[in-house]
Amino acid sequence: MASSVAAQPRMAPAVLRLFFHDCFINGCDASVLLDATPFSPSEKDVEPNASLTGYAVIDDIKSALEHDCPATVSCADVIALASRDAVALLGGPTWSVPLGRKDSRFAADPESTKNGLPSPHDDLGELIRMFSRLNLDARDMTALSGAHTVGMASCKTYRDRVYGTDRDEEIDPYFAQTTQQTCQGPSGKAPFDVQTPMRFDNA
Predict the structure, then answer these.
(1) What is the distance between the alpha carbons of residues 191 and 80, in angstroms, rounded to a whole number?
(2) What are the residue boundaries of the Plant heme peroxidase family profile domain, all occurrences included (predicted)?
(3) Of these residues, 5, 16, 21, 190, which one is catalytic?
(4) pTM across the whole model
(5) Residue 121 known to be catalytic
(6) Is 118 annotated as a binding residue?
(7) Are 151 and 13 contacting, i.e. CB atoms less than 8 angstroms apart?
(8) What is the spatial distance between Cα 200 and Cα 80, in angstroms, rounded to a whole number?
(9) What is the per-residue pLDDT for 186?
């Protein structure tokens, strides 16, 4: 992870997001890594997973492990460990990662993937319901959502809230103005955290 992030800093938030998207659907089973086959679709191809990156980082780590310890460490454990290290490399906390996850041989159903992941358009009540289905409470949801302290988002996912007729009056006016300047078009990207976009902090 250290060498990957040194070469491409954006890989740290990318791997963290990959882990969340994997775990939120059917648990932390690395099914998000599976490519489509004639018999099975891929979670990669379903919105909102179509914008996931970081697969090459996981592949490189897995290849190195297979060379030294063949058939020992699951891809699911690799993603969990890589995410922990990504957070630490961004200045965030570290934690002990219990190992022993099993890799899934099948991707989740596309409809389950599409409807099962939180959307930027979900309101608080819906988000709390989605997390509670996984036995996670509002405090867990808040802590996990804090990962948005790093990384970028496509402007199209939230542009209407800060720039246009659907502007949410509860959004901080300065933040809305800054985002309007960054998101001139739907194809751009803007940092979640304009102050410290690549630091895992609570600023």
Answers:
(1) 24
(2) 1-203
(3) 21
(4) 0.90
(5) no
(6) yes
(7) yes
(8) 17
(9) 66
- Give the domain 1-116 fold: Peroxidase; domain 1 (1.10.520)
Q: Is 196 annotated as a binding residue?
A: yes
pLDDT digits (tens, 9 = 90+) for 38-71: 988 999 999 889 999 999 999 999 999 999 999 9
Query: Please, what sign has the CA dihedral across residues 49, 119, 107, 65?
Result: positive
Does residue 152 sit in helix, strand or coil?
strand
Question: In whole angstroms, what is the distance from residue 139 CA to residue 137 CA?
Answer: 5
Q: Is 122 annotated as a binding residue?
A: no
Parse the chain into domains and list their residue ranges.
1-116, 118-149, 151-203
Cα(first)–Cα(last) distance of the chain, in Å?
24
Q: Is 170 annotated as a binding residue?
A: no
Backbone phi and psi for residue 191, each to the nearest 5 degrees, phi listed first: -70, 145
* Residues across the chain: 203
Low-confidence stretches of the chain (pLDDT < 70) are: 163-169, 185-186
Looking at residue 153, its pLDDT comes to 87
3-state secondary structure of 189: strand
pLDDT of residue 165: 56
